[in-house]
Amino acid sequence: MPLRLEARELACERDDRWLFEDLDLDIRAGEIVRVEGPNGSGKTTLLKILSGQLTDYRGELFWNGMPMRRARGDFLASLLYLGHAPGIKAALTPLENLAWYQALAGETGDERARLVALEGVGLAGFEDVPTGQLSAGQQRRVALARLDLTPRPLWVLDEPFTAIDRDGVVALEARLVAHARAGGCVLVTTHHELRATDELTRIRLGRGGDDGRH
Amino acid sequence: MAGTETPMTDTEAAMALHREPHGGLVVALRATLKRDLLLLLRRRSEVLNPLVFFALVITLFPIGISPDPELLATIAPGLLWVAALLAALLSLDTLFRGDYDDGSLEQLLLTPQPLAALGLAKVAVHWLLTGLPLALMAPVLGIMLSLPAGSYGVLALSLALGTASLSLIGAIGAALTVGLARGGVLLSLLVLPLYIPVLIFGAGAVQAAILGDGVAAHLAILGALLAVTLMFAPWAIAASLRISING
C-alpha cells in the first residue's frame, strides 16, 4: 500500500502574519515527522491543514501523488487524527466512547477488542466509569486507545503526550516507533523530547525564514 | 500504553495497517443516534429545560392578558405555536456546542462517512427529545388556554411535523454559530425569520381545526416544508460545520 503525503509551497497567513511560507514536505511510509517550533508558530495549524481540516492555505497537497481534492475519501480512510482536545465525551464511559469511534470508522467492532485496547493504555478496571470522573491523563489515554483499536497507516497527533505520565510517555514513544517500522507514518507535534531514531525527522516552524527540514 | 502490551511482529503489524475500513454508513449512523440519545438522557436537564420553558411561557399569558376563556381560545393556537417554537429554539444552541468544545466535531469531520448523514442523525435525536415531547405536551397546555375540543390532535400533529422542520433549519444556524463564543443571540436572529413559514401553516392548521375547516391542506404544506428542508438542510448543515471549523 503506497503511503505518501506531499505538500508543495505550503503557506498560511493568520492575522496578517505568515505562519509559514514555501514549506515543502514529503512524508513517506516508515517516517516519524516531528513538527517543532515555539508556541504560536503554527504547529497545530499545519497539522490541521495536513489532515484536511483547514482549507484557507496556499500551496498544494498530494496524497499518493493525487491532488488532495480528488483523493480525499481515500486519504480520510487512511487517517487517524488526535487533536489538541481529546474528543472524548465526559458523560460516556471509555467503552462507549471507543464504540462510537469504531462505528464512525464503519466497523461494528466487538467489546473484547475495546477492552483489550483499554487494557493496552493502562485503563483496565476503568471501562465503565464515566470519563468525566477520570483524570486528564486517563482521558487522554482513552483517546490514545484508538491508535490500537482502529488501525490506520497515517497518524496525525497533536500533542499526544500532554498529561501522560512518564511510563505512559515511554510506551507511547515505543508505539510510534513500532508503527513507523511496520510501514506506517506518524506526524506529531510535541514539546516532549523524542528519542532520536532512524525514523525520526523534524520540521522546524517559526523564527522568520528558516522554515524547512533539518 | 502500560507495559502489558505484547510486541507485534512486523508482518502482523503490516497486516493490521492494511485493514481497510469496510465502510458501513448504517453502522456509523446507528452509533451516532445511540450516542446522542445516551448523552441527552444522561443530562436530563437539557431535555427538560425546553419543556419547562414551554409550560412557563404558556402560564404567563392567562396571567398577563386575561383569564377570559373566550379570548384565550381565540389566541391559543398562535400562543402555543410561538411558545413551542421559542422552546425549540432555546435548545438548539447546545446541538453542536458540546462536540465542538471537546473535539468530537473535528473527528466527525474527519470520518470517511458523509458528514451530511451524520449531521442528520444528530438533528433526528434533537427532534426526538425536544420537538416530539413539545408536540405531545402542547394539548395539555391547550386545556389551560381553553383551546376548543377537537383541535388537540391537529395541534400535536402540526407541532410534530413543524418542529421537525424547525430542528432542521435551526441546526443550520447552530452549525454556523458553533465557533462563536456567544452564538446564542445571533442564532436566534439568523433562524427566526426562516421559521415564519412553518409558524404560519402550523398555527393555521390549528385555527382551521377550530373553525371546522379542512386541515389537510395546512398539514400537507407542513409536510411539504419538511420534505424540502429534509432535502436541503443536511448539506447546509455539513457545509456550515466545515465553515465553523475553518474559522
Automatic annotation (TrEMBL), chain A:
This is Heme ABC transporter ATP-binding protein CcmA. One of its GO terms (molecular function) is ATP binding. It comes from Halomonas heilongjiangensis. The lineage of its organism: Bacteria, Pseudomonadati, Pseudomonadota, Gammaproteobacteria, Oceanospirillales. Keywords: ATP-binding, Cytochrome c-type biogenesis, Membrane, Nucleotide-binding, Translocase, Transport. Residues 3-214 form the ABC transporter domain. SUPFAM superfamilies: P-loop containing nucleoside triphosphate hydrolases. GO terms for biological process: cytochrome complex assembly. PANTHER family: ABC TRANSPORTER I FAMILY MEMBER 1.
